[in-house]
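Supplementary Text 2. Reproducibility record for the structural model of the 149-residue chain.

All settings were left at their defaults, and a single model was retained for analysis rather than an ensemble. We include the record here because the model underlies the residue-level annotations in Supplementary Table 4.
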Amino acid sequence: TLHTNDAATTLPRLLDMGVEPFLVASTVNIAIGQRLVRKICPECKEEAGIGKNEIASLLEILPFKMQENQKFYRGKGCKNCNFSGYWGRMGIQEVMVIDNGIRKAILRKSSSSEIKNAAAKSGMITIAQDGLEKAKAGLTSINEILRVF
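Retained model, structure tokens:
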């Protein structure tokens, strides 16, 4: 376990720790980043709008297009959740599969942003994207996603 902000930062961190690039490139197959978010209480879940401030904050961490009639949710607060609006936790994750392009980036000692871009081109869904999808599905709130970033 390494404590990093995302999966892509894992690889440069290993290099900073003195692991040779060829060893990282040849032995690491996958890197997973995760954060825990609170789940909306199922007993008091209700639709909630999203304001301009939340949209601006989301756009800082993730470019996205707001769909017309997109619904988001929040917990109103009830006895079940001790009036917090949340009940339980779940992970939001990103899984970076180390392919040949990323291996070459490791050998070049590329930055984490370059590695993250290469992973995104290969189809990696970022933690922020996963969080937004779970908020759209009503599992957590936009405010909770913004809290962990």
